[in-house]
Amino acid sequence: MASTSGKTSETSPNRLDVQHWYRRIYAFCQARLISDSDSEDAVQETFARAIKHFPELRTHDAVGGWLRRIAHNVCVDMIRRQQIRRTDPVDVHALPHEAPPDPAADRDQREHLMRLIRALPQSQREIILLYYYESMTYDQIAAWLGIARSTVCDRLNRARQTLKSELTTTGGAP
């Protein structure tokens, strides 16, 4: 809903609200790149490109998707340049699991799950990210990645099976 000043909750019609998007884009980049410094560089490059091209954006209603696409392209460019492995984020809180009563054990378990997710093939990590972290539907993921909906379902199911198997083997322990 637009405010009386003409600003939407996401952006002003004339400027990109970097503060609003910074944390989400940082998390998006951080999950794809190995080091925090690479993630910071990617975020800076993302916003530099976005600010440069913001006046050309036809509609400001889809700023989030537009920024994610720029961030994705920046990360891919960095990966190609530096030949580093990609990893995709997952909001581990969104995955079904029982939280242990010990916060330190919970942190260890989440870190273990993230290591397992990083070990997944890139195509499966991408689906996990978009489904759990970005809360996209199967159809949205298919459109975003340019693949069939059935491929999205298949990759997500394989990723879940792999994670379940690994967690069962280790008893969920790191």
From TrEMBL:
InterPro entries referenced in this protein's UniProt entry, alphabetically:
RNA_pol_sigma-70-like, RNA_pol_sigma-70_dom, RNA_pol_sigma70_r2, RNA_pol_sigma70_r4_t2, RNA_pol_sigma_r2, RNA_pol_sigma_r3/r4-like, WH-like_DNA-bd_sf
Q: Which UniProt keywords apply?
A: DNA-binding, Sigma factor, Transcription, Transcription regulation
Question: Which intervals hold domain RNA polymerase sigma-70 region?
Answer: 18-83
Specify whether Transmembrane helix is a keyword of the entry: no
A biological process from GO: DNA-templated transcription initiation
Q: Which domain of life is it from?
A: Bacteria
Q: Which residues form the RNA polymerase sigma factor 70 region 4 type domain?
A: 113-163
SUPFAM superfamilies recorded:
Sigma2 domain of RNA polymerase sigma factors, Sigma3 and sigma4 domains of RNA polymerase sigma factors
GO MF, one example = sigma factor activity
Pfam families in alphabetical order: Sigma70_r2, Sigma70_r4_2
Stored PANTHER family: RNA POLYMERASE ECF-TYPE SIGMA FACTO (PTHR43133), RNA POLYMERASE SIGMA FACTOR HI_1459-RELATED (PTHR43133:SF8)
Protein family (similarity comment)? Belongs to the sigma-70 factor family. ECF subfamily.
What name does the UniProt record give this protein?
RNA polymerase sigma factor SigM
Gene name tied to this protein: sigM_2
